[in-house]
Amino acid sequence: GPPKFRVNPGVRLAIAKINLPQNELARRCGITSGYMSQLLSGARLAGPQTRRRLLASLSTLDFDQLFEEVE
Question: What is the mean pLDDT of the chain?
């Protein structure tokens, strides 16, 4: 199947550094804060649309900084 990606563990720290609340990031990405929390903890994988929205919302980070492929 297609490759699967999760959010890198360091992203939680990165958004804290830029003083971006998780719920605001979730709003920008069009997802619930609960889903965002699961993405940031690695409990849920990030699908293509969510990856695009996260990249757009966190423009200082590139794909490899934001995501890691899971087997």
Answer: 95
